[in-house]
Design goal:
The chain is an alpha+beta fold and 86 residues long. The protein is 38% helix and 14% strand. It has a single domain, classed as Double Stranded RNA Binding Domain, CATH 3.30.160. Strand 1 and strand 2 form a beta hairpin.
């Protein structure tokens, strides 16, 4: 993917460390797999298979983290697992 040297530098800075993030992957009504990273607002991708969606969300996560770092935003937001009676 082509990008400016500023974005590439930011991406390298973020990529130097490793982060464990939860992602959700589900198949929509058209058969496309949608992947989201709840800890990064707006970080969504898709693929024709679960494997494609997972690979694509990894790229989206790296790009989102680089953009958030460049803008001075927190890299992630707090996520929490809660129990709900149903």
């Amino acid at each position: 993917m082509a990008g400016s040297s500023t974005n590439d530098a930011s991406l390298r800075g973020v990529a130097q460390r490793s982060m464990k993030l939860t992602v959700t992957i589900y198949q929509d009504e058209d058969g496309v797999y949608i992947a989201e990273c709840p800890a990064i607002p707006g970080c969504v991708s898709q693929g024709s298979s679960q494997a494609d969606a997972e690979s694509n969300i990894e790229d989206a996560i790296r790009q989102s983290l680089a953009a958030r770092a460049e803008l001075g935003l927190p890299l992630t937001v707090h996520t929490k697992e809660i129990e709900v009676a149903v």
